[in-house]
Amino acid sequence: MASIEKRNNTYYITVSGGFDHNGKRIRHRTKFVPDPGLSPAKQRRELERFVFEFEDKVMSGKSMEGDRITFREFSYIWLNDVARKNLEEPTCVNYKMYLDTKINPYIGDMKLNKIKPHTIIKLYDALIEKGYIRNGVRHDYQYVTLKRVQDVLNGVFKTALRWELIDRNPCDAVKTPKVGKSKEKLKYLDERQIRLFLEALEKEYQAVFREHDRVDDTGKPYHVGTYTIPYKLPLQYIVFFYVALFGGLRRGENITLTWEDIDFDANTISINKATGKGVTGQYIKETKTRNSNRVVTVPNEVIRLLKRLKFEQNKQRIAMGKDWIETLDEDGNPYHFVYTQADGQQMYIDTPSQRFTKLIKDYNKTVEREEDKLPQISLHGLRHTMATLLIAEGMEISTVSGRLGHADISTTLDIYTHFLKERDKTASKKLEKYLQKGV
């Protein structure tokens, strides 16, 4: 039962919410100020409705006050009720890990409204001082990790502010400490390495199978010695890497391409969807940002390879007949993916990355001189390669940004700042010749 106390024009409501673990009664308090423009009878009805709703929230466990709920309690409410409804599952899993291992051990037991800017600063100080242990060795946290901590904290406090549990977001007054390297150096292929990479796509390699035991059809065991089988990279992986390199597509965009997205006459590829990966498997989703929906023009060779792949895929689909499995959308319509598994289903999103890493390793085994080996970059490095090539060729940054599908030009400038500075230094050196005497 709620108790109501009136002071001047304000009503103070108290509701008992049971007992805590020490046997102490838990009381929830709030206040209500009626609309002075209403008649006394209507004000009374508004008060009764407010009290009823508040009492219902307390009894159902939905009542929250910033001076009563801990950061740990509210952080998990935020994670389940807000983050999981607006972010992808892998991001939420990552955020929970940050809460469990980097944030809640330090501030989890503090009341939500007691956390101030200096509390966040002390949290960063503790993380920087303690670092983390990997394989028995202590390592320092890098800026990118502390920035992710800030992102999680900011998400929690923004929601608490919006729900009127706190008066201000303490993160607004705190900047992420600049420790270690703020950004990793971009990894991409230079012009010479691009030519080597394209040659690597066509080379023949040797798959080595170590000696092992087998059992024949009759159940009799036998031993097989070490042997090698020559192999070449399947066409669809060659196409995938060409599209990544010359189209600049993200992995999730590339793996989701359908034949309807390819305009063979205009030499264009339409990017309008992507693939995400959650705990239950991969799924089709919208592209990363509004500007990620785009149409990019690609060189003739990319289109030629796509035509070859479509021809080969059609032959395989016809040969398999009813065993060919189409991946269906929510309305039951087939997707007609460009990259498929052997049975026609969409290729798994991690497969191209694995094949890319293996390709570079296999190629480097065939090369003797270190300078002729390819750098072990990630698949995403092909996207960086396209961008750096275009910038080096003097392409307008707005055009590069458009091909990449960045949210805005500032994103492109931020990612490629170091490369742009290096190009500027090169330009300055070229200008120096005009200052030399006798020129």
Written overview of the protein:
The protein has helices at residues 40-60, 71-86, 89-107, 117-130, 143-162, 191-202, 235-247, 251-254, 300-320, 351-365, 380-392, 397-404, 409-415, 417-432, and strands at residues 3-7, 10-19, 25-32, 132-134, 137-139, 204-209, 212-215, 221-224, 227-232, 262-263, 268-271, 274-278, 281-285, 294-297. The chain has 439 residues and is of the alpha+beta class. It folds into 3 domains: 3-60, no CATH class; 71-173, DNA polymerase, domain 1 (Orthogonal Bundle), CATH 1.10.150.130; 191-202 and 231-425, Intergrase catalytic core (hpI Integrase, Chain A, Orthogonal Bundle).
Q: What oligomerization state is this entry in?
A: single chain
What is the highest CATH level, the class of the largest domain?
Answer: Mainly Alpha
Helical percentage: 40-55%
What's the total helix number?
14
CATH topology-level fold name of the largest domain: hpI Integrase, Chain A
Low-confidence stretches: none
Distance between the termini: 94 Å
Average of the residue pLDDT scores: 87
Q: What is the approximate shape?
A: extended
Assign the structural class, choosing from mainly alpha, mainly beta, alpha/beta, alpha+beta, or little secondary structure. alpha+beta
Element order, helices and strands?
EEEHHHHEEHHEEEEHHEEEEEHHHHHH
Q: Major sheet: size, sense and barrel closure?
A: 3 strands, antiparallel
**Number of discrete domains:** 3
DSSP strand content: 15-25%
- By CATH, the superfamily of the largest domain comes out as Intergrase catalytic core
Strand order in the sheet with the most strands? 1-2-3
